[in-house]
Design goal:
By secondary structure, the chain is mainly alpha-helical. The protein is built from ten helices and five strands.
Length: 235
């Protein structure tokens, strides 16, 4: 038995070393992906972009216009070279493990709150209401969470924010790319308050700025709740 182990251990160690070397090589083996590229690498690119909220459309392994647009949006958000080509820099940034430290700032969070919800909620609050009063920021966060709790909308913060209707984003910051801007401390604090149950506008699931949008469908079909700053809220 001992002789057997003496023989097998070096073999296993050699295989592990070879496996690690292969993985390192694969991680460094980037190839430029651009319009016209096809294959598994493109599928992985599309899937990762979608998972991180940069809509590349259908995961089909074909680098088309939607994938290029998603790559450009990601490059802008990451503050790296913007060329619509997923090269080494873009892929390195895209595939790296993200670390979100915002949960340690400001007010505490309930145990059920996860960092992904805080990450996206603070960004939509900042993008939609950075010029609004603090209560208006919390109200916007509350609307997102009310949608999560409703059967009429997607079931996560991120999916609510990135919901499309007839190929049109439900929230303008998604279309404009401002959803990826770094949120202010106040927006992060407002997101935490909303996540902890603060509801300045009750069960409202809609809001808009009358100076920027007519909101005819909302006014006609929903019930007015309140006005905070420039935003009006409906349920």
């Amino acid at each position: 038995m001992k002789k057997y182990l003496k023989r097998i251990v070096p073999i296993v160690l050699s295989l592990l070393i070879l496996f690690n070397i292969t993985n390192v090589h694969a991680a460094q083996n980037y190839s430029n992906l651009k319009v016209g590229s096809r294959g598994e690498k493109v599928s992985l690119l599309q899937k990762t972009l979608n998972n991180k909220g940069f809509s590349a459309g259908k995961v089909d392994g074909i680098f088309g216009k939607n994938t290029r647009k998603a790559v450009i949006t990601f490059q802008k958000a990451s503050k790296i070279k913007v060329d619509g080509i997923a090269g080494k820099q873009t892929q390195s940034k895209l595939y790296e493990k993200s670390t979100n430290t915002t949960a340690s700032r400001g007010t505490s969070l309930s145990r059920n709150t996860n960092e992904t919800d805080l990450y996206w909620l603070s960004r939509i609050i900042h993008a939609e209401s950075q010029g609004e009063p603090y209560s208006g920021k919390v109200a916007v966060g509350s609307v997102i969470l009310n949608r999560v709790a409703s059967n009429e909308f997607p079931s996560t913060v991120k999916s609510v924010i990135f919901e499309y209707y007839q190929n049109i984003p439900q929230f303008s910051p998604v279309a404009e790319g401002t959803i990826y801007n770094t949120p202010s401390e106040e927006s992060i604090k407002a997101a935490k308050e909303a996540l902890n149950g603060k509801k300045p506008v009750g069960n409202a699931t809609y809001f808009f700025n009358p100076k920027k949008a007519e909101g005819k469908w909302i006014v006609k079909n929903k019930t007015y709740v309140a006005k905070i700053g420039e935003h009006v809220f409906y349920k």
